[in-house]
Write a structure and sequence with these properties.
globular; antioxidant; 148 residues; Thioredoxin_domain; 7-stranded mixed β-sheet; oxidoreductase; 31% strand; Glutaredoxin
Amino acid sequence: MNKFPDFKLENQNGDTVSNEDFKGVTVIYFYPKDNTPGCTTQACDMRDAMDDLKDLDVTVYGVSGDSKKKHQNFIAKHDLNFDLLVDEDFELAKELDVYRLKKAFGKESMGIVRTTFVVDENSNILKRMDNVKAKAHAEDLKAFLQEV
């Protein structure tokens, strides 16, 4: 897949975000769940990297299956400075093959596998980062974006 699929999702405030909002380079990262340890680490690292990302003219969106209300709470609790998109039915996650069977603590369940897409203004996928590690993600992302 070379193109990011056409989509329309609501952000935490109920505003619609779609491919038409892609200006310059856009980072769309999929994560399992708001306010869990790994997802909080990833979101806070992304928040802390935001000044550097904005200097590179990069927009960031996080996507999970959580509701607008949960996203609002997550943003407020951790002072996040980017939008979180609602994919409650996992439609976009499924289309991008990031909603899969996962194993954790010996149990299997369906869920979002931590994955990031770097996309240009024409919805071309510049990079897909699979099985992202929450802790080093922002730094890995900045390193790639500085090359682009």
